[in-house]
Amino acid sequence: SDTEPYPVVVAALNALGKMDTAGNLDVFRHQVGAKSLNDRLASVSVNILNTASLDASAPILVAATSAKHSSTARMNAVSALGKVALTDEAVNASLRPLLQETTNPGLQEETARTLKNRKDKGALPLLRDLAANASATEDVRAAAKDAVDALDAK
């Protein structure tokens, strides 16, 4: 509901996640798109979808990577995408631009790890550039280099 207090909605989302995540994807999609204080409902929904690891949740998780969401929700959504719909090129394509978000190094780092987990060789040029980018943080460069090394080895 869009009118219930957050604790009630969070409890209901958790219950739906335990009972039938797959059957309630529309509810989680709605909550990811709904505005809430500190993006709380999107974050809870992303965490539930992460636990469920359903390929069908990929479009919802991709939506949660949008810049309109909190950094925490975005990073958790990116991480969750490292476990679902691993052969979906559309998901890979949606993740690649996140490597270039220089204002959020944590997101860049998590995206590099996720693309490595997804075995996305199409991300290699961007990952190579990021690994060599002197203005990127050391952790971002290291994550990008690790992804390049892993993807080149396969």
Topology:
Layout: H1 6-20, H2 25-33, H3 40-52, H4 58-64, H5 71-80, H6 89-95, H7 105-117, H8 124-132, H9 138-152
Report Rg.
16 Å
Q: Could you give a short account of the major beta sheet? A: none
| Structure summary, number of beta strands | 0
| Tertiary shape | elongated
Terminal CA distance reads: 47 Å
- SS summary, helix count: 9
Mean pLDDT: 96
The sequence of SSEs as H and E is: HHHHHHHHH
Helix proportion range = 55-70%
Share in β-strands: under 5%
Structural class by secondary-structure content: mainly alpha
Give the gist of this structure:
The chain is an all-alpha fold and 154 residues long. It is 64% helix and 0% strand.
Describe the structure.
This protein is 64% helix and 0% strand. With 154 residues, the protein is mainly alpha-helical. The longest helix is centred in the N-terminal third of the chain and has 15 residues, at 6-20. The protein is elongated, with a radius of gyration of 16 Å. The termini are far apart.
List keywords for this structure.
single chain; 154 residues; mainly alpha; 9 helices; 64% helix; elongated
